[in-house]
Design brief:
Layout lengths: L7 E5 L10 H9 L3 H12 L5 H10 L5 H11 L6 H10 L3 E9 H12 L1 H4 L2 E10 L6 E4 L10 H14 L8 E6 L5 H4 L4 E5 L3 H8 L5 E3 L2 H19 L15 H4 L7 H5 L3 H7 L22
Parallel strand pairs: 1-2, 1-5, 2-3, 5-6, 6-7
Antiparallel strand pairs: 3-4
Amino acid sequence: MTNTSRKIVCFSDFDGTIFLQDTGHVLFDNLGCGSAHRQLLDEQIKSGERSFRDVSEEMWGSLHTPFENGFEVLEKALEIDPGFQEFHQFCIKNNITFNVISAGLKPVLSRVLENFLGEEEASHIQIVANDAEIKPDGSEWKPIWRHDNELGHDKALSVQEGRALALKGCPDGQVPLIIFIGDGVSDLPAAREADVLFARKGLRLEEYCKENNIPYIGFESFADIQKEVEKIMKEDHEKTGGVGTPARFNPRANMWRRASSKQAIPKFVAATPTQEEKMFIWPESFSEPQPKTMPEVPETRAA
């Protein structure tokens, strides 16, 4: 495959997407608050009782172990998607910018990637996540939040910033193609900003896309994603020659934030929305929703 003439930027979730397990859950369950209490805290997020940021601070605060001890547990527990490394090498070869976008902690994600991919290859991945202060003796793991909101990291804003940065590097008249890869409904704030959305098959993001007629491409491994991206690159080259907007362009990507404001929806919905409705309508303020079916909200569908 020859290098595409259009700038392509890929954003991928980390936990449950690149790696099949959740790094935070592995640490909390084995070295922190324990599985039972962690699940109780997760329920407090899902019910709306507490914010993601508040609960996350408690979870990370439950760790009192040196970073290296935590990494040893992660190294044994984590399994990388079998097609990821080949896909990432494909991105490097074709000048596709690859970003990890996560609500986790950058030092943890960086160390995991370096271990599984090697330092040189991992250096090509931009990690867009919260920073952290971890004391050498492990007595404190403190998140340094990327954004000052209830989630701590506004993934939608981060994708918008990535799009704007890519646009600056494009030739005059060219618009970059934005790809997002995820697995859960909490990925929606970032996914809505993409031109092409990949959702892991059988998980909540795919189910949600089906329920709400949101265009997406399902995948079982990153090998599937690579095949689809190759098709997308070929299609874009044949239809546009890399000029103007991409062949697969979501014109509403930057309109969702305005359209999903509280002022833009009916008063009865604003007054008594379910947790999942709130997640979809105001995703900047909510994390993983309860597993309920959400009514159609036509004005927020992706193009």
